[in-house]
Amino acid sequence: TPLDGHSYVVPVERDVQIINCATRTQAVMALNDYWNTDRMKRISRLSISAVRKCVDRCLDAAETYPETTQLQKNVWLTICNDYLLQLSGINFYRTCKVALESMLINTDAGVSRMTIAIVSIVAPKMRSQDARVLASDVRYVKHLVHLMEQNLNHFRNSNGVRAENSLYTLKFTLSALWNLTDDCPATCVVFAHENGIGVSFDILRLFENHNNIQTKVLGILNNVAEVYEQKLLMLQNAEYLEAL
Q1: pLDDT at 61 over 60
Q2: 3-state secondary structure string, 120-142?
Q3: CA-CA distance, 79 to 65, in Å (whole number)?
Q4: Which one, of 220, 173, 166, 167, lies nearest residue 192 by Cα?
Q5: With 0-12 CB in 10 A as exposed, 13-18 as middle and 19+ as buried, what is 67?
Q6: Mean pLDDT across the stretch 60-85?
Q7: Phi-psi region of 38 (alpha: psi -120 to 50; beta: other; left: phi over 0)
Q8: How many other β-carbons are positioned within 10 Å of the β-carbon of residue 98?
Q9: 8 A C-beta contact, residue 219 and residue 178
Q10: Of 195, 116, 203, 210, whose CA–CA distance to 156 is shortest?
């Protein structure tokens, strides 16, 4: 590439530059290298600024090639890293938004699991006004409610690894919705209109001995109940009251 003659401060910087102007194949290869760097716990050796560049260029790649499944997998495998997601200076709003967009476009179960995990982790780290902007996008709320219902049904009708994967995705979906419905009445209304309340009570009944899931669901319902009309609907439903 034209970048071959350029000098770089750290070895990974060359790949960061390549992703910014890459062909699809180059981007996939570079992202695979980043993932290996994370997996081998070498990421902590890079400067914080270099890590931020890695994240930004990964997000660039995800936005540029939204329908390339392998590239999307490599992007989210790279970013779905505790060290990365705790760094100050990471653009949590952009990370969350790109992950949500990827979730809408890709039907791959692996991409869905990673993106919802990332959304659930970074959503609480965003500024309140940024979270409200994302939560106001009806597409995201509808999709997350769909994920709730889909993974609830998969868990009911599956066993083994598939059931475990569905439970994993369900937990992170509930965490994301708990954060996105907080102090956001418009989001709560969309959640209710998409039958999110009904699905939530189905989850409460099925996981009555699972404290972690119960806490998340009750957190969502508490947020929704702050909208007076939705609280009345729940109070007037005998089955809901019995479940509570």
Answers
A1: yes
A2: HHHHHHCCHHHHHHHHCCHHHHH
A3: 16
A4: 220
A5: exposed
A6: 90
A7: alpha
A8: 23
A9: yes
A10: 203
Query: pTM for this one?
Result: 0.79
Q: How far apart are CA 212 and CA 206, in angstroms?
A: 13
* For residue 113, pLDDT beyond 80: yes
126 with 93: CB under 8 angstroms? yes
What's the pLDDT tens digit per position in 205-240? 999 889 999 999 999 999 999 998 888 888 888 888
For residue 51, the model assigns a pLDDT of 82
What distance in Å separates the CA atoms of residue 203 and residue 154, rounded to the nearest whole number? 12
Where do the H-state alpha helices sit in the chain? 12-20, 24-39, 48-64, 69-79, 82-86, 92-105, 109-122, 128-135, 138-157, 160-180, 185-193, 196-206, 211-225, 228-235, 238-243
